[in-house]
Amino acid sequence: MDTPIMDMLQTYAQASGERWHMPGHKGRTPVRGDFLCWEFDVTEIGPMDKNPNPVQVSERLMAAVSGADRTWYSVAGATLPVMAAILAANRFESTLRVDRTLHRSVLGALTVGGYQAEWIYPQFVRAGLMLPLREFGADFSGNSGLVLTRPTYDGLAASIQSVIDEAHRQGLTVVVDEAHGSHWSGEWYPESALSMGADLVAHGVHKTEASLTQTGLLHLQGHRIDPSEVDRWWRILGTSSPSYLLLASLDRLQWERHQPHYRDRWQRLAERAESLWNTMTAMGIPVLQPWAKAEGLSVDPARLTLLGPGKELAERLARYGELEKVTPGSATLFLSPDQELSLIIEALRGMDFRSAEGALEPLEFPRLNSAMTVREAASRNGRRVGLAESRGLVIKEAVTPYPPGIPVALPGEQMTEAMIDWLKWWAATTTAPIQGLTWQNGRAAIEVVDE
């Protein structure tokens, strides 16, 4: 019998290229990584009957080192934390103010809770990137909660202190999907939404840290959210048979965070990354992060976004390793403290970057009108039509370039000619798939509500 998944993984591991993508452990077994043992793959055993049980004790240790009042361990990445947070913080069918750079997990919560959404749109630039939100609106009347995604997939963040304070003043709860920011620590990194007072903050620790894929955290602070409501949604949405290898991976991470060297490793990466930016700038290689820093944004040094033709950048770098994300005008690498960075320079030496000019110019992102809520669209029958024939029809399935996993057209919205053109442009200029579109004989199709 064939073993296609095992074969794929063995082939990839033997290629020995750099891993400029998730997960953060980069294929290296970390200190105290000896839990990766079949004998440790168990279910609910005797010590779990204690109160507190070992998982609860470890969660309390993680909360203490994270500055949270309560922390939950997720074996479903940041998806479970995001969904549970939104549902615990907001009554069903209320209206939420939602950042349009949402991960698709937010759609799951909107569907289950039947929420209305008022969207906040970020700026979009020609490279195919979304910049951090800076304008949120001052009047939240009619809203029960604020849902933000921070940082961007490329590690850019703006301060949200004032909007959190204002939302709280007007009686809103604040949930922040900070999946890509779990490692932030020290002056070189953006400030966490947890320290700014957000009520619930989700972290996808596997994205950047030495933790197994599917590990995540949800942090709660303050009195606005009842932790028993989070517990309830955790039981409803989460698995009843969590992997103890994944839970042990989180336990190992909380141990590492208590070690003196933890912050030092990330500090050294930041210093090396800034040196790399300077070298690239001197070589004429345009990089997003130093530009964003000069614009007054906070920047995560563990992200490196090269501006230029995405497909060509991907082909160049493929000789040395695997990328995380490609857009029409950029390529994004995820860096870790133990990686050698000079290979990136070697891979790009001699490349012509003149086509990157204008990559950061604002580009009008097509905005769609909502004909019904996400839940209403999910409850209707659907049919598949050609993308070119979908203008004016109501979308049933989200259309999502992946990565970064940000839906550009949502269930319940009406398709427009501008969005059709945008999707054609994206598909023609990147190698990444677009979830929600199917292809047959070179023709794209999309699922719409069958009215």
Describe what you observe in this structure.
The strands form 7 sheets. Strands 2-11-10-9-7-3-4 form a 7-stranded mixed sheet. Strands 13-16-15 form a 3-stranded antiparallel sheet. A 3-stranded antiparallel sheet has the order 17-21-20, with no helix packed on it. The protein is an alpha/beta fold and 451 residues long. It has 3 domains: 220 residues, Type I PLP-dependent aspartate aminotransferase-like (Major domain) (Aspartate Aminotransferase, domain 2, 3-Layer(aba) Sandwich); 91 residues, Aspartate Aminotransferase, domain 1; 76 residues, Ornithine Decarboxylase, Chain A, domain 4. It has 13 helices and 21 strands.
In whole angstroms, how far apart are the ends? 45 Å
**Largest sheet strand order:** 2-11-10-9-7-3-4
Task: Outline the low-pLDDT stretches.
Answer: none
Radius of gyration: 22 Å
Percent of residues in beta strands: 15-25%
Name the overall outline.
Answer: globular
CATH class of the largest domain: Alpha Beta
**Mean pLDDT over all positions:** 94
Q: What is the third-level CATH name, the topology of the largest domain? A: Aspartate Aminotransferase, domain 2
Question: Major sheet: size, sense and barrel closure?
Answer: 7 strands, mixed
Number of strands: 21
CATH superfamily heading of the largest domain: Type I PLP-dependent aspartate aminotransferase-like (Major domain)
Kindly state the percentage of residues in helix: 25-40%
Q: Helical region count?
A: 13
What class, by secondary structure content? alpha/beta
How many structural domains can be distinguished in the coordinates? 3
CATH architecture of the largest domain: 3-Layer(aba) Sandwich
